[in-house]
Design brief:
Four Helix Bundle (Hemerythrin (Met), subunit A); mainly alpha; single chain; two-stranded antiparallel sheet; 72% helix
């Protein structure tokens, strides 16, 4: 394991709480006006996926920290969960990069980006939620 990962005891309660927060954020995304706020929708999608991946890590008994931790969580998912296609992993990584540009450079996303990626992002979110629920049983 990498030095950015800390081995911990699996934490089901924290994972449940993160799952609940992600589901609340997903509900909120449905209310975002994509014509006016596509960048906000993209950021929120990324936050949901990042949180769900961190819940998977928690259930596997890991935490990440430090510079590049988000990138490492995506790599962890790619290496350890083959149910995610290369295309899906690439979409998550693209979204991570885009979210950083939005947050740090004031970059604006076009509505078209969100509508083109929505199906893939929903698929990733569905897989992550299913995985977490299975691990919580």
């Amino acid at each position: 394991m990498d030095d950015q990962f800390i081995k911990t005891s699996p934490d089901k309660e924290k994972a449940k709480s993160i799952l609940k927060m992600a589901e609340t954020t997903l509900e909120m995304i449905q209310t975002i006006d994509l014509e006016r706020f596509p960048s906000n929708a993209a950021k929120e999608y990324y936050d949901v996926i990042r949180e769900l991946i961190s819940a998977v890590l928690l259930l596997d008994g890991y935490k990440t920290y430090g510079e590049g931790a988000h990138k490492k969580t995506i790599e962890y998912l790619s290496k350890n969960y083959k149910e995610f296609t290369e295309y899906e992993i690439s979409a998550i990584e693209d979204l991570r990069t885009l979210r950083n540009r939005i947050a740090y450079d004031g970059f604006f996303v076009q509505k078209d980006y969100v509508t083109r990626k929505e199906k893939t992002l929903d698929s990733v979110i569905h897989k992550l939620r299913t995985m977490i629920k299975h691990k919580l049983q």
